[in-house]
Amino acid sequence: xxxxxxxxxxxxxxxxxxxxxxxxxxxxxxxxxxxxxxxxxxxxxxxxxxxxxxxxxxxxxxxxxxxxxxxxxxxxxxxxx
Length: 81
Prior knowledge:
Blueprint lengths: L2 H8 L3 H27 L3 H8 L3 H8 L7 H11 L1
């Protein structure tokens, strides 16, 4: 079975599609946080101080290893507006 065939087969599974959407969202958020930092010209350390979250937590979000909390997203939103 080729990779494309396997992927088509997996996409028939609702649980797989659900998890795939979560992963897409995780990486989209990861990219957005990195982009915000780049536009603001700030380091993870500086962002950490601005929004009150640890550098380790922000790093995990930027690497797509953890979903951000609602509070994190709200604070990120505040610094972009």
